[in-house]
Specification:
- The structure holds two protein chains of two kinds.
- By secondary structure, chain A is mostly helical.
- Chain A contains two helices and no strands.
- The radius of gyration of chain A is 16 Å and the shape is elongated.
- In chain A, 20% of the residues are buried.
- By secondary structure, chain B is mostly helical.
- Chain B is 91% helix and 0% strand.
- The longest helix of chain B has 36 residues.
- Chain B is elongated, with a radius of gyration of 20 Å.
- Classes of the chains: A mainly alpha, B mainly alpha.
- Chains A and B meet through α1 and α2 of A and α1, α2 and α3 of B.
Chain lengths: 65, 128
């Protein structure tokens, strides 16, 4: 919970981008698409967890429910 | 000094998102969402303190707690609706953003109705 989260997501994004270019250059477009999807799912898992934490915090602070 | 930390996080995140924007725009949007969450988490403890102080004043002034609770709810809904709308605007989906804002306004209006009715009743009593 903190800045390292942003760095982790950025690192995954850059890694996926580089891998994607690498695979496309070497002619394996399908695997490039696979790695893109895999990277997206990993980042999505992290983001969904963080958003859940945010919504719970907002609910407790503003006594929304 | 926390404001400097938050500005630092904002700058670093912006630079990282710019790097990601060209190749992987979907991950860039998620990075901006997480940045928003991280910055809000840093402020959460201060916000709780402010809400507690306000709550204690409301009790001291014997104001009906319903009013303060409603105001707090409206503030929360306004904040979270604005958070979602801005993220959608950043991603370029201004149509969805305006829908989210509309939903926020409607929900806030629904919450404000009891207060308005009680105020009108009060005015009716005062009127000769």
């Amino acid at each position: 919970m903190g800045v390292d989260l942003i760095f982790r997501i950025a690192a995954i994004g850059i890694l996926v981008a580089v891998l994607n270019q690498l695979l496309i250059r070497s002619g394996r477009e399908e695997q490039a698409m696979m790695t893109t999807l895999a990277g997206l799912i990993v980042v999505l898992m992290i983001v969904v967890k963080e958003i859940a934490v945010l919504f719970d915090t907002v609910k407790t602070i503003f006594k929304l429910d | 000094m926390q404001i400097i930390q938050i500005i630092g996080i904002g700058f670093v995140a912006t630079v990282l998102i710019i790097i990601l924007k060209k190749q992987r725009p979907e991950i860039a949007v998620q990075a901006s969402i997480v940045t928003g969450v991280v910055i809000f988490m840093l402020l959460a403890s201060k916000l709780v303190a402010v809400v507690d102080v306000l709550g204690s004043y409301v009790q001291k002034a014997e104001i009906k707690p319903v009013y303060f609770a409603t105001v707090l709810k409206i503030t929360g809904i306004a904040y979270i609706a604005e958070f979602g709308a801005e993220i959608c605007n950043d991603a370029g989906e201004s149509a969805i953003a305006s829908k989210i804002e509309l939903a926020g306004k409607v929900i806030i209006t629904v919450l404000a109705v009891p207060i308005i009715t009680s105020m009108l009743d009060l005015i009716m009593e005062i009127m000769p």
